[in-house]
Fold this protein.
Amino acid sequence: MSVDQKTVRHIARLARIAVRDDELEALEKELNGILDWVEQLGEVDVEGVEPMTSAVEVAMKMRDDVAVVQDLQKEVTRNAPGAEDGFYVVPKVVE
């Protein structure tokens, strides 16, 4: 797969990146290089290789899962534009 300058312009527009006409050729070469590299990755034989999340095996640090009951109702509604009896007050949206 390869991209042309029209495709580079389209990608730049989608990414909201301003690209000058004199930059198109260089970006075209870079994107084609990236796509060539991705195609090479597809040729690698990964049969029998287990998926991994890290290159180094890391053990997760665990802590006890303790439920803490706190009354945060006043703190949560303190910055609300409207609150009444600990609940948010919102305008009616159904007629």
In short: The radius of gyration is 27 Å. The chain is about 35% helix and 5% strand.
